[in-house]
Amino acid sequence: MNEILHALFSTEGFVLGTLVPFLFVLTVVVFVHEMGHYLIGRLCGIGVKAFSIGFGPELIGFNDSHGTRWKLCAIPLGGYVKFVGDMNATSSQPSAEDLEALSDSEREVAFHTQPIWKRAATVVAGPLFNFLLTIVVFAVLFSVYGRPVLDPMVAQVTAGSPADKAGIQPGDRFVRVDGSTVETFADVQRLVQGRAGDAIAFTMLRDGKEITLTATPVPMEQQDALGNKIKVAVIGVVNSTELGQARIVTYNPVGAVGAAIEETGHVIQRTGQFLQRFVVGREDKCQLGGPIKIAKMSGQAAKLGFEWLVQLVAFLSVGIGILNLLPIPPLDGGHLLFYGVEAVFRRPVSERMMEMAYRTGLLLVLGFMGFVFWNDLFGC
Q1: pTM score
Q2: Active site (annotated) includes residue 34
Q3: Residue-range domains of the chain with CATH
Q4: Which of 41, 269, 355, 377 has a CA positioned 20 to 30 A from the CA of residue 252?
Q5: Catalytic residue from among 12, 34, 58, 97
């Protein structure tokens, strides 16, 4: 019995070592996303009936002075904001009968009776708040811990590697990668790691002269700090702390925010690039993970320290933001697609078309969820 309790409740056990960090990460990301919908909706004069973290039976909750029910539900895998006039948690278009059933005061603040720009602003606020959360996390981390950097130097070249075949030599300095200027070795890695199989032009500084060489990165399986086996594209060069002049760059608050915005942009770009390559079959399916993988990563991050856990929050927040912007009902991007069509044709999408789109979109979303669960349990 003692061994079972230790396995469950010690800091390395399932509850404290994995479940609590996972719930912390997921709750923060979901809360910020839904808070974006809530705040902008309220700012636009839309009434809010419920703000929920989780789905299913309510565990605890309370009503605020505006009549909004704030609640925590039993299944903590998501959340929602239910506006006045919503018939369900997806904010899908209610029927004419449902709208007629609203009182005059409810109809005035109902989500679906608002101008397109108010509805669009409320919907897009969720993903934008996710990106804002990532910026805030990076800004705090850069302010507190600084940022370790290496100059973009080549200390070693692996024999037979793409870099070796391209003619890159020890002592070379990366200047540009496919036209993008690089200032650190991390910049080079960022521009290369998601492009296995693509021919990339590298502008190098050698003996005071710039030369351009072309190399095609190859995928290599590595293990990251959180224990994940990941495939990244490499060209076979290694830096060193001496040649790269390893140092910690410190930031004042303004500089930290600027660096955080830049880093968030890089994360968004890499995530979008990964999704594009994944759709056409150029990325390993095992790079996608669901709740089980995120839970394992959360536990490992917690062991490494709180700063690792909040970094995971930042990266997951970007992923949630981008996924929600995909133009698939019932995701936020699906709503935005309908509003775009409504703006162009000056009338809402028909109930029949919307119902078909929601059913198809829901099947796609459920299929994707099933796919990542399979990956977590059996596929990888």
Answers
A1: 0.88
A2: yes
A3: 2-144+316-379 (no CATH), 147-249 (2.30.42.10)
A4: 269
A5: 34
